[in-house]
Amino acid sequence: MTKKKYTKPPISFQDQIIKLQQRGLTINDYDKALTYLQSISYYRLSAYFLPYQKVKDTFNAGVNFSQIIHTYMFDKDLRLLTFDCIERLEVAIRTQFTYRMALTYNDAHWQDNQTHFVNPYRNKVGRLVDPYTDLQNIISKAKTARKPEVFIKHYTDTYESPANPPAWMCFELLTMGELSHFYRGLKQVEDKKRIASYFGVHYRVFTSWLHSLTYVRNLCAHHSRLWNRDLAIEPMRLLKPKGDWIGKGFENNKRVFYFLSVIKYMLNRANPNNNLSNNLEDLFNKYPTVPVQYLGIPSDYQGNILSWRNEPLWN
Fold first, then answer.
1. Amino acid 271: pLDDT
2. Fewer CB within 10 A of the terminal residue: the chain, N end or C end?
3. Helix count (H) and strand count (E) of the chain?
4. Spatial distance between the Cα atoms of 284 and 74, rounded to a whole number of angstroms
5. What InterPro entries does this protein map onto (predicted)?
6. Burial 42-68 (b: 16+ CB within 10 A, else e)
7. 91-121 pLDDT per residue, tens
């Protein structure tokens, strides 16, 4: 494909409104629309235009600017809900990772034993993968920081040895992505199985889900769109659930609803009394005009959206 030069010029906020009107978008409150464009940006909002355009760059009849903003706000609330759930899971994953290893090997400082991790290797793109050294570097940086975490400073000021704090302190330093990296970096499959078993999944599925959790967490943290998105890092399909799950029609793991089902499945183990089902339903009810099927909720052959609340996982 021959590339071409980008020649689109910047246009004023007022001209952006004229452009939207020329494309058929109804704008009932000019000043409010101008305020939104000035604070959100035309480009950011444009991702929410597409489902309301059967013909490219032409809005469907009756679509107004308020509908676009409602869709945008729905997506914002969806991110907040998702981020909160991932935070809860991150804490549970960190806890299980730390204590399953510590109790299995009766070692508070198991993270300092290199034999628990795979040997360094080069991945497909030639990057060195060395989990043990990566973890030690994180701990070392935390210990030598100008303003170390209070619990790290307390350990180094109080104890002469071992040199590093115990695992349950060190793992508090890790991000979701780092937890995923070090889980993949465990040498023994049995260690991976023990951690994954708490969440009721095969360790390979758990590895995939950790990767997806990291990816979606970063989307939420950077205010990226979840609604109407194909996931670049898909969570592996759960073929042998050990508890309530979703039907085949809902197993489009490229879309966000499948990811939400992954979160729900894991939360049911880490926090059995979680309110995700009700919270998600409340979100949908708050924005009744937003087409939630773009999350990956399927329809029947007549085009009617299937009832996700009737699925065993969500009921």
1. 95
2. N
3. 12, 2
4. 8
5. Abi_system_AbiD/AbiF, Abi_system_AbiD/AbiF-like
6. beebebbbebbeeeeeebeeebbbbbb
7. 999 999 999 999 999 999 999 999 999 999 9
